């Protein structure tokens, strides 16, 4: 049976594979270690280097170091805005 650290390693390997295979413009959520916890970046993949990815979020671009990545996955587009009621 696999321990928590094995599962963490598998999740991280999967996340890095998702980030390597994603095309610029793909919508992703990336969870990364941040201080004593984790932080999520939800948005489109704007850039990728050997060390980091840049996710364009509603609050602006977020650079995530690959060494800090815990999980990542593709997400569907946001829902269409609801029409305003008169």
> How can the largest sheet be summarized?
5 strands, antiparallel
- Could you say which overall geometry the principal axes of the C-alpha atoms support? globular
DSSP summary: helix tally:
1
The whole-angstrom Rg is: 15 Å
Instruction: Round the mean pLDDT to the nearest integer and report it.
Output: 91
| Oligomerization category of the chains in this entry | single chain
Low-pLDDT runs of 5+ residues are: none
- Helical content stands at 10-25%
Overall strand count: 5
If strands are numbered along the chain, what order do they take across the biggest sheet? 4-3-2-1-5
Q: Supply the helix-strand structural class.
A: alpha+beta
SSE order = HEEEEE
Q: Give the strand content.
A: 35-45%
End-to-end separation: 59 Å
Notes on the protein architecture:
- This protein is an alpha+beta fold and 86 residues long.
- The protein is built from one helix and five strands, in the order H-E-E-E-E-E.
- Strands 4-3-2-1-5 form a five-stranded antiparallel beta sheet.
- A hairpin with a 2-residue loop joins strand 1 and strand 2.
- The longest helix has 18 residues, at 4-21.
